[in-house]
Design a protein that fits this description.
Number of strands: 0
Strand content: under 5%
Radius of gyration: 21 Å
Helix content: 55-70%
Structural class: mainly alpha
Number of helices: 6
Shape: elongated
């Protein structure tokens, strides 16, 4: 059987290379729009959760009730933990939504979600008491930290670094995981 170059007819079917003109080629604009959409949904979701904790907005519990939750979960300094959690969710959520310091914003959300999963561990996988929602948010934040914000992000206007590097994402994810571990080991009974 003779070999045929890609894109040529073999008599039974044709194959097209996955080059620039191929329908299989990925559009950089499609990827950037997808990253923008993911950043906005995850980031704004986290920012709303944070504002619920800090200010009681959006039918939230406010800082005192959130501190009571942290106390019931065995965290030392529950008021400080409630403030840190609320600020991290709000600021990292907004950072993620606008694409500002994206790897660090993703790392902050990773840390929050790891702590949330730790408090729900043993309640099963599915909502309302399980970890499924937290796991989805954690995975999205880590994915954005590793992939970068895409073309439509405030990170493009920073003086350095202008381009995303996988090493930045890996370092940020490691920082978020280590920070979460420290909080769980040192600040939780």
């Amino acid at each position: 059987m003779p070999l045929h170059p890609p894109g040529s007819s073999t008599g039974t079917h044709t194959t097209a290379p996955a080059g620039a003109g191929s329908p299989l080629a990925t559009s950089p604009y499609g990827t950037d729009i997808g990253l923008l959409l993911l950043r906005c949904v995850v980031g704004l979701t986290m920012a709303v959760h944070g504002s619920q904790k800090l200010f009681g907005w959006f039918n939230g519990s406010g800082l005192d009730s959130t501190a009571g939750f942290f106390a019931s979960e065995g965290y030392s300094a529950p008021k400080a933990m409630a403030t840190i959690a609320g600020l991290t969710e709000t600021l990292c959520g907004l950072g993620l939504a606008i694409g500002l310091l994206t790897p660090l914003a993703g790392a902050g959300i990773l840390g929050i979600m790891l702590n949330s999963i730790a408090t729900k561990w043993g309640n099963g996988f599915f909502n309302p008491a399980g970890i499924e929602y937290d796991l989805v948010l954690l995975t999205a934040a880590v994915s954005l930290a590793l992939a970068g914000p895409g073309r439509y992000a405030a990170d493009r206007f920073l003086p350095v670094p202008r381009t995303h590097r996988l090493s930045h994402g890996i370092a940020a994810v490691a920082l978020g995981a280590v920070s979460a571990a420290i909080v769980l080991v040192a600040l939780r009974d």
